[in-house]
Design goal:
single chain; alpha/beta; 8-stranded mixed β-sheet; two-stranded antiparallel sheet; globular
């Protein structure tokens, strides 16, 4: 009598993304990650309604989840807002923490300008170990007034460029100035710090550069696509999106409308006018809080005020991200709010600290994956926002409801409370 073979466990690969908006390059990445990894399922960790550059996503997280599922994803999970609006180490660290605790992910795929995994692994090892020579150089450059990204680059160049890159400093500098490389490096460092079994894998970024504002014939950047959509030229972009998502994207733009940084100017201005140094310092670094307080009378718009506040040692992106975190009331790291108080590295509790992760959407065909996660994961999958713990999800509730308040007012539509929203199922 033949014994029945046990069912094979689902094989999953993962991608960390914003999909702002989902385009041809994203569909290509999902397709190639599935092909090259042999994965049965692709899991996406996705930012909610606000993104890492320090502004709102073009479309809300539900519309973007639907596009991701139509574009090839099997399961979309939410990256907590405090991480989604954080600098690269916090963004990457929380996303990797979720993936590692799921217990089913074999490989983490990311796009990069480098296209080779080896330099990421070598640099991630250095950043994890932090040799004394590197730490001393880093402190020296920060004391000289360099921003952290510039100080880190100089410290690495001074100590390791010749050993890691054939072309030395020039090649290392180019590597560390590429936006996707920076995030990829943080993913690898986060995996190292957790001693994770997940293997990092990279695909070379195809088409336009991350910040390119001109459309290309193949894979245009999300920056260029957002610029055209916000200018009202979405109808001209059909060839820039996968045919399976184009009708849904058009429909979402017509139904929902889209948001940009300037839509949040008035709430930010009102908050600044009603703030003291003590209240601002809870959410902004003290020197930035003082500067914001002194210059708030010159506030004209979100973008204009960001430009006004930037300095030599604080980049525009860093300032914009800080202003968004103020608006969302995400605390800064301090004596009271520091990584030692939580299992992660953020300044506040998240669902991950509570042993939970929020499902934004899934395909019905992913049922075996969901079952396997329930068996293997140290995180509980949560689909109903009304069941989420208020203390660990309050920032995410606030962020989603603020986004929806602005969107519904702009589109002249009824407001939808976050606690009533349900995951997208295809």
């Amino acid at each position: 009598m033949e014994t029945e073979r046990p069912a094979r466990r689902p094989n999953a690969a993962a991608i960390i993304a914003e999909y702002n908006p989902f385009h041809l390059g994203h569909a290509y990445q999902i397709r190639e990650a599935r092909r090259l990894s042999g994965a049965d399922y692709i899991i996406i960790i996705m930012s909610g309604c606000f993104v890492q550059r320090g502004g709102p996503a073009l479309l809300d997280k539900y519309a973007r989840t639907r596009l991701a599922l139509l574009g090839g994803a099997d399961l979309v999970l939410e990256l907590p807002c405090a991480a989604a609006c954080g600098s690269a180490p916090y963004f990457a660290g929380e996303a990797v923490r979720i993936l590692d605790r799921l217990g089913v992910v074999k490989e983490l795929w990311f796009g990069s300008e480098a296209g080779r995994t080896e330099p990421f692994l070598a640099l991630a090892d250095l950043l994890t170990r932090e040799p004394e020579a590197y730490r001393q150089a880093l402190r020296r450059f920060i004391r000289q007034g360099d921003s952290f990204p510039l100080a880190r680059r100089k410290a690495l160049e001074e100590n390791f460029s010749a050993a890691l890159f054939p072309a030395g400093t020039f090649e290392l500098q180019a590597f560390l100035e590429a936006p996707n490389n920076i995030l990829g490096l943080e993913y690898c460092a986060a995996l190292n710090r957790r001693h994770s079994s997940i293997r990092p894998r990279t695909l070379k970024r195809a088409g336009s550069g991350y910040h390119d504002r001109e459309l290309s014939e193949s894979f245009s950047s999300a920056t260029a696509l957002r610029q055209r959509i916000l200018a009202g030229a979405a109808k001209e972009l059909e060839n820039q999106f996968p045919p399976e998502i184009w009708p849904e994207l058009q429909g979402a733009l017509l139904r929902e409308g889209c948001l940009e940084d300037e839509d949040f100017s008035l709430p930010l201005k009102c908050l600044l006018l009603d703030s003291s140094l003590a209240s601002l310092s809870s959410y902004l670094p003290e020197e930035l809080a003082r500067r914001a307080l002194n210059l708030r009378g010159r506030f004209l718009s979100f973008s204009q005020f960001t430009d006004l506040l930037k300095t030599r040692n604080r980049t525009r992106t860093s300032v914009q991200r800080s202003l968004l975190r103020l608006l969302l009331r995400i605390p800064v790291l301090s004596g009271e709010n520091n990584p030692e108080h939580f299992s992660g590295t953020l300044s506040c509790r998240t669902l991950t600290d509570e042993g939970r992760v929020r499902i934004l959407g899934f395909r019905k065909t992913a049922a075996p994956l969901l079952s396997e996660i329930k068996r293997q994961s140290s995180l509980a999958l949560e689909a109903r926002p009304a069941d989420l713990p208020e203390d660990a999800y309050q920032i995410d509730f606030r962020a989603s409801n603020l986004y929806e308040a602005i969107r519904s007012h702009k589109a002249r539509q009824p407001f939808r409370d976050e606690k009533t929203r349900q995951p997208v199922i295809l």
